Amino acid sequence: MTTTSADVALVTGANKGLGREIARQLADLGLRVYLGARDETRGGTAAGELAAAGGDVRFVRLDVTDAGSVAAAVAVIEAESGRLDVLVNNAGVSSEIGIAVPDITADQMRATYEVNVFGVVTVTAACIPLLRRSANGRIVNVSSRLGSLTALSAEDSRQRKLGALTYSSSKAALNVLTLLYSEALRADGIQVNSVTPGRVPTDINAATDRRGERTPAEGAAAPVHLATLAPGTMTGAFRGAAIDESPGW
Fold first, then answer.
1. Could you tell me which residues come within 8 angstroms of residue 64 by beta carbon, excluding any fewer than 6 positions away?
2. Where are the domains of the chain?
3. What is the pTM of this model?
């Protein structure tokens, strides 16, 4: 096992879009970043490009739905860096585009939850031993206003009218994970927070008219802020694209 003086971060689903931009910004701040992706070619290419730009970015194959690949990725981080300071649970999917709420099947719900909920638990549980070795562990869960019960409770809200049953409910579940992990890990000094990056043109939005008004760089700003918090700053919070904004649980 080796160690490094730079903070060490793992970003899941990071070969493109928001995840890649989060990885880039963290590397620009001097962190050693493990770029997690299930596709070896795309992930390796993305990590190589970011490393060529001067960052310490390293590819690890990581499929959040495959506990074996998660364990292998964590083993690489432990061998090369000895600890983990930051985990960004960014990987996410939606399996319902163009499907009305009454037509959603249990299989479609499972497909979304496998990544957005069970995948987060798989990765987080595997990373906790390394996060406990950090002097300032931070977990950032990339959520959405579509998972805000506050927003969904308003009858005229965009989030409610959109009717994204699998995605909204999975992000609401993710917010619950945030609250419970934050309490469970408080004594370890590990800060656990949720964040919505705002509407960014990701693959999830690409098949809809909700491409978004924010660039990936703008969307990554709030997750990166939470990933670089000073010790004891904030835990169990849900933050908006503007970090001083709370979308409401």
1. 12, 13, 38, 70, 91, 115, 119, 120, 122, 123
2. 8-239
3. 0.94
Helix (H) / strand (E) element for 184: namely helix 165-184
pLDDT band at 95 (very low <50, low <70, confident <90, very high): confident
Q: What positions carry a catalytic annotation?
A: 167
Q: How far apart are CA 53 and CA 35, in angstroms?
A: 15
Residue 59 three-state SS: strand
Structure token digits, residue 191: 């800060």
Model pLDDT for residues 22-64, shown as the tens digit of each residue? 999 999 999 999 999 999 999 999 999 999 999 999 999 999 9
CATH topology of domain 8-239: Rossmann fold (3.40.50)
